[in-house]
């Protein structure tokens, strides 16, 4: 029930009616059932606790959109006895099926990641007095171990408290007996709606070798926000891609993707409001309602212009619009799934929301008002906005040097944007001190991987994906231009030049690979085979440095085009070997790339020694011939690198 409007009365009689309804509908049926199984007078408080848990669990089940009433007979016949022969060697049974109220039977492949997840769930079910029957079925003809991870599942049955202070005792997971010589990475596998990250650890969780650790390796993970996802439906009908939404108070905004009308926001529990962003979005569209059920969102309007909720749509011209309740309540750890319904305003039915090239060049609001708003936005943000990503203590060290090199060569204000998912707790603690010392702004950003987009399993490829797949939704809607700089780069020029550079209508600009280092031709794969035929004379660009015109990028739906091509190509595991480079280069016909002057990126692997003198940035890219460690290369190749490194560590 709720939220209840300010003008709606909810008095004692209403409350008593609600209590009576809940008791008859949910509590009494469960009480009658449990009373037939247990002697509630002898159980006393234990029975009361059992009844409360049963009411909560079955109440949530009844609310699910995937099942009917919890007390009705299910439509699907439930099979029993699939795994009853305990003499089978691969069969494990625990508990007494005849005495247990809950009986669970499972067929598991223990050599898969799915099997790793379900084993502790079955263990927790046994702890809840369930009878378990598990039949193990796996492929015996495997050439190598299918799973390459150690997995623990934390399922705390209840909160535990310190008997002295009353404080909640944090739940813990321990890994014992792990190999000491193997290089390990610690990660977190959570519910998809949780935004959880490590918040305390002095160790490099991306590069753990237990032989170098003199004590226990400890890390604390914190659930900071919950995911608010949704799918927008346009009744015009049209694809609402590019529609900009605002989540207030102060939780930022996002844009609607073409795929399923998907959008994503993050926030802690509380009450918020969802609305269309002022400007082009509110000019083209108005919000009809916000549904909380997918099925309600697909009910058609009736003939006289009312939507499924009974609200009058003023866009039909048949009356004043009923005020839309834009309140969103996040009240559970499941986050929220929303289904907003929108319609184009009169006169805009056949117009495209996404601006053309000419419209992008001018203010979306036009005139003096639009110019004043653009100027106000420019004053609020930094002159140079730099985006980067790093994972592991070594690359965070490179990142610090890169930041110092940027600040050494500009008098403009600078703001750095980092993807929080991959930063270590130690670096996040160090950032405020570095920012105060060097005089820059910074912000930590993140974006949960959408459930419908094929996910990468290797961490390095996931990082590459974040460099290119979510550029339209990572940053605030009022940010116009951002520059990506690899963590292992050293800057020798003022990046304000890239901010002021005219990209000639392209959404982003990259530097082409150098072609003047002799002896590397056999590694220039873009000069033969598929890439030679596909590029047809266009250059193949490197992804270590690029500038993005976010206004143009969003206006042409470049993010949707990139994600669509990624979804198609990533079905082949042999495709997109260099994901962050291959994807934009593959799509140059659809999403054009402006080629930056060659001096904007110099790399010893591909560029001649003579070109180094004019280099504006130096990238420590890998050399397939020498395989020289990057730290050794930095000290040998860039004289100022050691100076910067010493200054930061001082």
From TrEMBL:
Known pathway: Protein modification; protein glycosylation
Cofactor: Ca(2+)
GO terms, molecular function: UDP-glucose:glycoprotein glucosyltransferase activity; unfolded protein binding
Chain positions covered by the region annotation Disordered: 300-320
Domain of life from the UniProt record: Eukaryota
Gene Ontology cellular component terms for the protein in this record: endoplasmic reticulum
InterPro entries the UniProt entry points to: Glyco_transf_24, Nucleotide-diphossugar_trans, UDP-g_GGtrans, UGGT_TRXL_4
Residue ranges of domain Glucosyltransferase 24 catalytic in the record: 384-649
All residue ranges annotated as the UDP-glucose:glycoprotein glucosyltransferase thioredoxin-like domain in the record: 1-43
This protein's UniProt keywords: Transferase
Pfam families: Glyco_transf_24, Thioredoxin_15, UDP-g_GGTase
Gene Ontology BP, a term: protein N-linked glycosylation via asparagine
Signal peptide start-end: none
Keyword Transferase: yes
Protein family according to the UniProt entry: Belongs to the glycosyltransferase 8 family.
Protein name: Nucleotide-diphospho-sugar transferase
């Amino acid at each position: 029930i709720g939220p209840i409007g300010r003008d709606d009365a909810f008095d004692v009689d209403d409350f008593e009616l609600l209590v009576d309804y809940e008791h008859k509908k949910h509590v009494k049926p469960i009480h009658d059932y449990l009373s037939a199984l247990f002697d509630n007078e002898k159980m006393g408080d234990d029975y009361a606790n059992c009844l409360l848990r049963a009411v909560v669990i079955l109440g949530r089940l009844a609310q699910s959109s995937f099942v009917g009433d919890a007390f009705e007979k299910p439509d699907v016949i439930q099979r029993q006895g699939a795994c009853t022969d305990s003499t089978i060697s691969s069969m494990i049974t625990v508990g007494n099926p005849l005495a247990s109220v809950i009986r669970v039977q499972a067929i598991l492949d223990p050599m898969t990641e799915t099997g790793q997840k379900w084993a502790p769930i079955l263990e927790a079910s046994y702890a809840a007095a369930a009878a378990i029957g598990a039949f193990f079925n796996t492929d015996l003809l495997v050439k190598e171990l299918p799973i390459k991870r150690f997995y623990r599942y934390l399922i705390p049955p209840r909160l535990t408290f310190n008997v002295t202070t009353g404080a909640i005792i944090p739940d813990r997971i321990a890994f014992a007996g792990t190999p000491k010589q193997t290089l390990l990475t610690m990660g977190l596998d959570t519910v998809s709606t949780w935004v959880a990250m490590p918040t305390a650890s002095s160790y490099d969780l991306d590069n753990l070798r237990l032989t170098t650790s003199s004590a226990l390796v400890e890390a604390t993970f914190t659930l900071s926000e919950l995911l608010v996802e949704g799918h927008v439906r346009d009744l015009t009908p049209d694809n609402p891609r590019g529609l900009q939404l605002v989540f207030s108070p102060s939780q930022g905004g996002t844009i609607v993707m073409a795929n399923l009308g998907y959008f994503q926001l993050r926030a802690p529990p509380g009450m918020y409001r969802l609305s269309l962003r002022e400007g082009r979005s509110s000019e083209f569209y108005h919000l009809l309602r916000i549904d909380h059920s997918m099925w309600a969102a697909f009910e058609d309007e009736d003939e006289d212009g009312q939507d499924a909720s009974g609200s009058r749509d003023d866009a039909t011209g048949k009356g004043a619009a009923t005020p839309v309740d834009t309140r969103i309540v996040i009240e559970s750890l499941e986050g929220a799934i929303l289904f907003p319904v929108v319609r184009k305003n009169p006169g805009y039915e056949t117009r495209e929301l996404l601006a053309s090239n000419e419209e992008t060049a001018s203010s979306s609001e036009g005139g003096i008002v639009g110019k004043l708003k653009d100027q106000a936005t420019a004053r609020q943000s930094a002159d140079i906005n730099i985006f980067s990503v790093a994972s592991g203590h070594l690359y965070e060290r490179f990142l610090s040097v890169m930041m110092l090199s940027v600040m050494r060569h500009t008098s403009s204000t600078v703001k750095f944007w980092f993807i929080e998912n991959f930063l270590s707790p130690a670096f996040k603690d160090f950032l405020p001190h570095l920012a105060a010392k060097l005089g820059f702004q910074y912000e930590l950003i993140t974006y949960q991987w959408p459930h419908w987009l094929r996910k990468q399993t290797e961490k390095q490829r996931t990082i590459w994906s974040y460099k290119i797949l979510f550029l339209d939704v990572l940053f605030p809607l009022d940010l116009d231009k951002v520059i990506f700089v690899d963590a292992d780069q050293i800057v020798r020029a003022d990046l304000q030049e890239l901010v002021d550079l005219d990209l000639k209508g392209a959404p982003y600009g990259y530097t082409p690979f150098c072609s003047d280092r002799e002896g590397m031709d056999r590694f220039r794969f873009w000069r033969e085979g598929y890439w030679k035929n596909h590029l047809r004379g266009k250059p193949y660009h490197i992804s270590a440095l690029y500038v993005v015109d976010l206004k143009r990028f969003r206006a042409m739906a470049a993010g949707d085009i990139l994600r669509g091509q990624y979804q198609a190509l990533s079905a082949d595991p042999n495709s997109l070997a260099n994901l962050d480079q291959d994807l934009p280069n593959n799509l140059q016909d659809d999403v054009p790339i402006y080629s930056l002057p060659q001096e904007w990126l110099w790399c010893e692997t591909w560029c001649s020694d003579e070109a180094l003198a004019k280099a504006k940035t130096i990238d420590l890219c890998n050399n397939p011939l020498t395989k020289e460690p990057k730290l050794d290369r930095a000290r040998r190749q860039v004289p100022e690198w050691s100076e910067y490194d010493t200054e930061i560590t001082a």
